[in-house]
Specification:
single chain, 306 residues, FAD/NAD(P)-binding domain, seven-stranded mixed β-sheet, five-stranded parallel β-sheet, 7 helices
Length: 306
Amino acid sequence: MEKLVILGAGCAGYTAAIYAARASLSPLILAGKEPGGQLVWTTKVENYPGFPDGVQGPDLTDNMKKQALKFGARIKNESAVKFNILKDGFEIETEKGKMQAKSVIIATGASTRWLNIPSENKFKGNGVHTCATCDGYFYKNKEVAVIGGGDSACEEALFLSKTAKKVTIIHRRDKFRASRIMQDRVRKNKKISIIWSSEIKEIKGKKSVESIIIQDVNSKKTREIKISGIFLAIGHIPNTEIFRNKIKMDDNGFILTDQRMHTSVKGIFASGDVQDPIFKQAATSVGTGCQAAMEAEKYLEEIKDK
């Protein structure tokens, strides 16, 4: 039986592995088929401490991986497809087999809701983004679009308006879902305009985004808008399906934890975007990954003689 299995290989998972490995727990990381988390789609990270010139997202997570391996963590590129709570531990089933663990850290992250249009993949991380705080600075004095109509979309637009030349919110409905205070702030901002009842149908550009084709959902008429960047704020889907009805979650499927990353089940901890519907930052994921590992170490010490 494994002492500790870490599900996920983003900032939270790798940080948890570094701390757990240094505590001689020999953690096993189930990295999934696409390790690296959300930073895989981030070309340059400028707000992560210690890198005054910025760092490529994939390079940052790759260095975390190397650090975890250096201290004795083990990695398998397998995904958990089933999860069961046992009397004296937990059973994890991957596409290649089953394993048991005394403790588990869930760091499976949250997947971005993409537009799912053919031209989107070409510009992911290079014109199409999911985090204004992370990538907004690259569009200083440029025109950008924010897709969405909730609080997140309004927050992204307001943040971008500080540096962008112009921000256009594109929403597929005829009214916001955002709170009244956020709507008021957006409407009062002279740098923000709103296009209602419209969806993006195509993203155009050679090496970078140059324009978008949008379609009115009612009239079906299309038009082209020149912009340099697109920020998606249509939500994140926490990767928690296999834990449903086994661990307490909020209404959107994010795992509920206390301040020390404990879930509703003893021996199971959660960190990163899978339990954070608000901040979704590399720095915050690292912090919760550290906490989860330290608490897992305490838990394993407590049950050692049982």
